[in-house]
Design brief:
The complex is a heterodimer of chains A (335) and B (94).
Chain A (H helix, E strand, L loop, with lengths): L4 E3 L9 E3 L12 H16 L7 E7 L2 E6 L2 E6 L5 H12 L14 E3 L2 E7 L2 E2 L10 H13 L11 H15 L6 H9 L17 E2 L8 E3 L7 E3 L6 E2 L3 H12 L5 H13 L12 H25 L6 H13 L10
Antiparallel strand pairs in A: 1-2, 3-4, 4-5, 5-7, 6-7, 8-10, 9-12, 10-11
Chain B lengths: L9 E6 L2 E6 L5 E2 L4 H11 L26 H4 L3 H10 L6
Antiparallel strand pairs in B: 1-2, 2-3
The chains are: A alpha+beta (335), B alpha+beta (94).
Chain lengths: 335, 94
């Protein structure tokens, strides 16, 4: 969820940028943000002496604080991010040109207790223009990533672990909400690997781990080739996980079938290994798509409860899908 | 048991004393070894109409590939006039 700025109405070039979906305006260390801005400015000026100084905060959340200064982006990762694992993931990005945005520096540095990485600025997908969504580019990048041998020993992809955190947070935040039970039941019916409770059945395929449309940027901006960003969850695992968010959106009725089929067809055309080359893809997609539906529903319900508001219709569609999964749980045990 | 095709739960029905499983999602039918022959034999023995069939007539697997837990009508749910909303928000969220 990075690099997603939108020019403010009437904003001038290089002027104020607004973050579209800033949900938690919190920074654990108050001194971090100005320090990170200073580092981004210094790094940008080192790259471009004649800097126009267009600066913006792209995200400020406990797990990611991201600031932009002209063509340079500085990201402070979560305080509990494993420094060794993060370094491996940054190195992997540097060695996968044409798939992942390459970092400006080969290793993270520590700033106010948070590991910090530097990246070139890339132009994001326009969230106000569904017709321009780069489905084919996303599918092509994923197929390329999944077919590439890991350039070094990276840790496991973190998708299931992140989903488990979202469901645990739902359990703790909204124990009495009527949507909590169906979401937790759908989650409990998943196999252990999809809940982050056991090793994944694939330990060699390189995966992004957190694919959504905010994870694509054009570099160089504004019309360079599309690349994947955000390496925090990158690692080896089940590649169908990377297709599972679009699959879940399609299954929940949030993504039109044509767009889902464009994405799936492009992925298959590029030899992506997550699904069979033809025939029904759902035997491969079903478990990850159920997990992503439960995760997305858990986050939505948690946010609604914290904001003391009812679920909107998009959020209800996710919870309804979880409820429809319940009959399929007959063989599963509940924990 | 779960449907081998779409993974929805299968429900057991008794047809002429033969246990058959029908998928609650795609309506496909699973027959154990010998059950098809048993049904055929029973059909031949009795000319009278068989007991009521399972709730929906067996039919081919749906052409549109989607999971059984998906939105009704093959996923034709919320995109329409809600497309902008789900696109701008959901499709960009972790």
């Amino acid at each position: 969820m990075l690099f997603r700025p939108r020019l403010a109405p009437g904003g001038k070039h290089g002027g104020t940028l607004l973050l579209r979906t800033l949900t938690h305006v919190t920074t654990d260390a108050p001194a971090l943000l100005p320090a990170l801005e200073a580092r981004a400015r210094a790094t940008a000026h080192a790259r471009t002496p004649a800097c126009p100084c267009g600066a913006a905060t792209l995200a400020d959340r406990p797990d990611a604080t991201v600031v932009r200064h002209a063509g340079t982006v500085a990201k402070a990762h979560a305080a509990d991010a494993d420094p060794a694992e993060l370094a491996l993931r940054v190195t992997a990005a540097a060695r996968l040109p044409g798939v992942l945005l390459p970092p400006l520096a080969p290793a993270p540095v520590v700033l106010h207790g948070r590991p910090v990485t530097y990246w070139p600025y890339g132009a994001p997908v326009d969230p106000d223009d569904p017709d321009a969504a780069p489905w084919e580019a996303a599918a092509t990048l994923l197929a390329r990533l999944h077919r590439t041998a890991a350039p070094l020993a990276v840790p496991p992809m973190r998708g299931p672990a992140k989903a488990a955190l979202a469901v645990a947070r739902l359990r703790d935040t909204a124990p009495g909400h009527p949507a909590t039970a169906p979401v937790r039941a759908a989650w409990a019916a998943l196999p252990a690997w999809a809940r982050g409770a056991a090793a994944m059945p694939d330990t060699t395929t390189l995966c992004h781990g957190d694919l959504h449309l905010g994870q694509l940027v054009r570099h160089p901006a504004p019309d360079g080739p599309w690349l994947l960003i955000d390496i925090d969850d990158l690692g080896t695992g089940v590649p169908a996980w990377d297709l599972a968010r679009p699959a879940a959106w399609y299954a929940c009725g949030l993504l039109p079938p044509e767009e889902w089929h464009r994405f799936l067809t492009a992925y298959r055309a590029r030899g992506g290994p997550a699904v069979p080359a033809d025939g029904d893809p759902w035997p491969a997609l079903d478990v990850p798509a159920r997990a992503l539906t439960a995760q997305t529903a858990a986050r939505a319900v948690t946010k609604a409860v914290l904001a003391d508001r009812p679920l909107d219709e998009v959020e209800c569609a996710l919870v309804d899908a979880c409820a429809r999964m319940a009959p399929a749980r007959s063989d599963a045990s509940y924990g | 048991m779960q449907c081998p095709k779409c993974h929805a739960p299968m429900h057991t029905y008794n047809r002429n004393g033969v246990q058959i499983e029908q998928c609650s999602g795609c309506r496909g039918i699973f027959l154990d070894y010998g059950e098809l022959e048993s049904l055929t034999r029973l059909e031949a023995q009795w000319s009278q109409p068989a007991p009521p069939a399972p709730p929906a007539a067996p039919q081919a697997y749906p052409a549109a590939q989607a999971p059984a837990w998906g939105a009704p009508h093959g996923g034709h749910g919320h995109y329409g006039h809600h497309r902008q909303k789900s696109f701008g928000r959901m499709l960009f969220s972790s």
